[in-house]
Amino acid sequence: MLSDVLANNFEVRAKHIARDIKKKKIDLVGLQEAALWKLQTPTDGSGLNPAAQRALNPVVDYIDELLEELNRKAKTAGECKKQGIPKSKCFRGYKLVIAQQEADLEFLGDFDNNPGPNGTTCDLSSGTCPPPPGSNSWTTGNDDTGVNLGEPPSPPFPPDSNFDNPPFNGAADAPGAQDCAPGAGDTNPSASPNPPFPSPFDQANNPVCMFHGIDGDLSLTMRDAILKRKGAGVKTRNSRSSNFANILALPLFGGQAEVEFTRGWTATDARVRGKRFTFVNTHLESESEGSIREDQASELIAPGGPASGPRTIIVGDLNSDPNRAPANLPDGDGGSNIAINRLFAAGFTSLVTTPGIATGSHGDHGDVINDPNDLLGEGWIDHILTNSPAKLKRKGKAIILDGFEDGLWQSDHAGVLVRIKGKKR
After folding, report:
1. Among 177, 259, 345, 373, which is least packed, fewest CB within 10 Å?
2. Average pLDDT of the chain?
3. By the 8 A CB rule, do 123 and 115 touch?
4. Contacts of 225 (CB under 8 A, 6+ apart)
5. Is the model's pTM score more than 0.90?
């Protein structure tokens, strides 16, 4: 995962995204999945250790990187006046209006790929680990000289163990817990199952030394954000944000813990050169799990919701294609038209009417960004909508912003741009 983050160099991609935004003089920008990646070494057992702290050392901050690129060559009003640059030609840059934290996850990782003293290692996630000589069912474990976090014990779990009380400080394991190398050191060759893992693998009756060789923690914080152009008659007030009440939660360690994928929205009351409207930016759940995605859409338009008032524009990754029929019901809608139909039923219409449009990626995000042959395949899931089509009309055609430059796509989703004409108020 960390290798993907570094290979998909956002510093490079941000230059091209910023160039498009500045060239087209975009007044308001809605960002979804603006990642903040942080790293911590050595690990403190985040996810297993209740006392663990979140990683603090930033690897890359998508919002900061993009704003840095957007504000290159920006000038203050005073500088423009001093240099004789008219207001209409004075580039003032962009600023963050509001950001909302969404999914916030942290992962254990072996970042040095140290094979350990037995000279052997294998990435179990690859599914290609060969069995050791004389065996057809086990593979050599990922021994490492890094921190030994122990492993989940076989059930029943010791009541005082917190999944084996992993020796975060090198101390001996809790009484009754199982571990491939008790105590500190982590130098003992060990065995792990070949994929496919027993289900659930964390409750397998055989020891699984899956936590050997952990060097650090990698943290991912997703945010939605609104940016605005400075010095161009773009005013915002009453900016607000929140997470949805309906969110996806997945069980871990046989139901002993869970991870939540929070989603949410940002909103601001905007006045752009006299034109007033509410600007709502959102990201609905990507996984087709039950009715979560459409319930989040309903929260936007419910009484008191951010998109419940008149003269509202919604931008965002809705993960809902108006041209896709539902599938997999009742367990999920398959990214169909159910969620966006709830917005249509509340009076919203699309300001992007290009037929057959595809904006979202397919496959793994890491592969998508650096594959020059990739074609957007998830259908029309990125939208700009309004509930006041008579007052907030599109000017010209919708524009799809996308490009493969310097060996990278700008994003795993194409940008969507519309220009609005409306009566001054």
Report:
1. 373
2. 78
3. no
4. 30, 31, 34, 63, 96, 97, 98, 99, 100, 266, 281
5. no
